[in-house]
Structure formats: C-alpha cells, structure tokens
Request: fold
Amino acid sequence: MLWGQQTEIEEKIFVDLTEVMGRTFIHASKIKHAARKRKHHSNFRTLIKLLNNDAYKIESSKPLKNGKLFKYWRNRRRLFSKIDSASIYMTDELWFSVTPERIACFLANFVKACMPNAEKILDVFCGGGGNTIQFAMQFPYVYGVDYSIEHIYCTAKNAQSYGVDDRIWLKRGSWKKLVSKQKLSKIKYDCVFGSPPWGGPEYLRNDVYDLEQHLKPMGITKMLKSFLKLSPNVIMFLPRNSDLNQLSRATRKVLGPFAKCKVLYVKENGYMKGIFCMWGECFFNYEPASTENSRRESSEKEELSSENEELSKRKKHESTTTTKDNTVDIYDLNG
Ligand code: MGP
Reply:
C-alpha cells in the first residue's frame, strides 16, 4: 500500500470515530479521564467520588441488608452471570430493574438476526448495562443514556468487567430534554431500545398496567414518538401485564391506521418476565431459528430451570391482557 493511501485510511477512521461520539457521549473505557476533564460539572464530581470509592460494588456472597431486594439478590446470577467471578456494580434500583442476562442476550441475538448489517444501537435507559453489554457483544457501536450518573457509572464498570467497554459510549441526561434539544440526533442509529422505569416492583399492583399513566418519564404514545425520531426500528421492554389495547392505540396514533407492533412475551424458567414490543419492518420478516439453535436453546432452558428450584415451587400469578385488535401480534417464546 502506498503511503498516501494509508494516510487517507487513517484520516477516515479518525473522522468516523469523532462522528460516532458526536462529542456528546463519553467512552465507557475512559470515564475516569472524562470525569477529571469535566470536574467543574457537579455530575462529574459525583462520578469522580464514585470511582474513587469504588462505590456500589457487589459482594456476591453477602446478602443485601434491604429485605425488599432479597429475592433479586437470590437471583443475582441470572442478572449477571459474572457476579461471582468479576466486579459487578448495582444500586438498589438496579436490583429490580436490570434485565436478566439471558433475556438481554436473547434480545441482542434477535436484533442481530433481524438486522445483520446494523452497527449502531441506542439503549435509552441503560441502567446497570444489562442490555447495553449484551448489545455490545453483537454490535460495534452501542450508546447508553440514563438520567442517573450512578447508573452511567455502573454501566461503565460492568461493561469493563464484561470486556466490552471499548464498544460503548455513555451519556447522562433526561430523555425528555435530550430529545427535545435534539442532543442525540447527530448519530444515525439502526435501532433504538429502551427498558423504561415501570415504577418499581409495585407495577403488578393492578391487574392491568396502564402504559399511559405509569410508565416513566412519559406515557407510551409520547415515548414511541420520541424513539421513532431517532430510528424507524424501535424496541421496548415493558411489564408483562401491559395494556395491549393502549399499545395498539399508540401504534396507530403514531404510525398510522395499518401500523403493527410485534409483541414477544418473555419467560425465564417458566415465568413471565415482561414483553418486548417491536416496531419496524425488519422485526416482522426474520428467519426462524434453525433446529440446531432451538435444540441448544431448549437444553439451556432446562439447565436454567434446574438452577432455581425455589422459584419453580412458587405459584405465580401471571396476569396478561388480551386484545382482539389485530395490530398486535402475540408470540410466546416458550411456544
Ligand atoms: P419483577 O416482576 O419485579 O420480579 O421483575 P420477579 O421476581 O420476576 O416477579 P415477582 O412476581 O416476584 O414480582 C422481573 C423483571 O422485570 C426484572 O428482572 C426486570 O428485568 C424487569 N423490571 C421490573 N421492574 C420493576 C422494572 C422497572 O421498573 N423497570 C424496568 N425497566 N424493568 C423492570
């Protein structure tokens, strides 16, 4: 290769990376450096303190003092399989809201199968990085946004433990403000994913979860609209008792009378955990998994079932709503 050509390639790489970061995001492997550079800002001063204190590091063998979180701690290896062997960081809120690893891994694989050429994924409420990390296993550029600097810190630290921090860029900010001020629109995302706050473990208080009233920081219609501003391919992880009629109405209102939303009910160890709601053509026409993959998956499921006998003894109320409206497709991962 001629010297001139090489320089051109190097320059191109440099330009691409600058575009990718859009100066808004900080690289997950460089949060310490970024925090020091921006220490005039209170959030970054907090970040420096968290880093210096190695805050929120989990001691896997030590049960949590907060009794309400005990059931989540008991299932800690489902949240992060590396929790015993690597440093994992969690705030109280993350214990009940982080997506269990097997589910996050399923989703990342699913998106990869639907969009094999995709490169850039945005995880809107990245929390402790459960989804961000699994996306980074499949895609080269993953962006995580969260309103909490503690969550940004946990995502970065957890991503470092999983060895994928080189593919992750993070930003703290309120979703409403970031969208209204068009802070994220410089980058062209192939897919926008979000597992928004459901309002804590009380989300099951009512049989049917009101997606307009209780979803934070905005109802499902506004949320969908805001996600679609950044990509035509959108996925949300929502409560298993979500009102599917509201989902249909939001879909039609935002995308037109014939638009569809695909809903996947996600079970782990036989228990419903939530639903993946998907908007975008690519999620409707994917190839079903090969027999080999299905066989491997079912043997993995069996392993997972025997892992937690306590859970299987528990009788669980699984209320789901149904809709006659054909704008919602319902699938059950367990067949
Ligand atoms: P869960 O329903 O609180 O627990 O959370 P469990 O043990 O499945 O069921 P229960 O019948 O004993 O209550 C199940 C999963 O839902 C969690 O692992 C998270 O992935 C997700 N989840 C739960 N909550 C309360 C939230 C939330 O507020 N936000 C988000 N994004 N996910 C949540």
User: Anything to note?
Assistant: Residues 3-21 form the longest helix (19 residues). The first strand starts at residue 26 and ends at 27. The pocket of 7-methyl-guanosine-5'-triphosphate is lined by residues 71, 96-97, 99-100, 195-201, 203-204, 273-274, 316 (CB under 6 Å). The two ends are 54 Å apart (CA to CA).
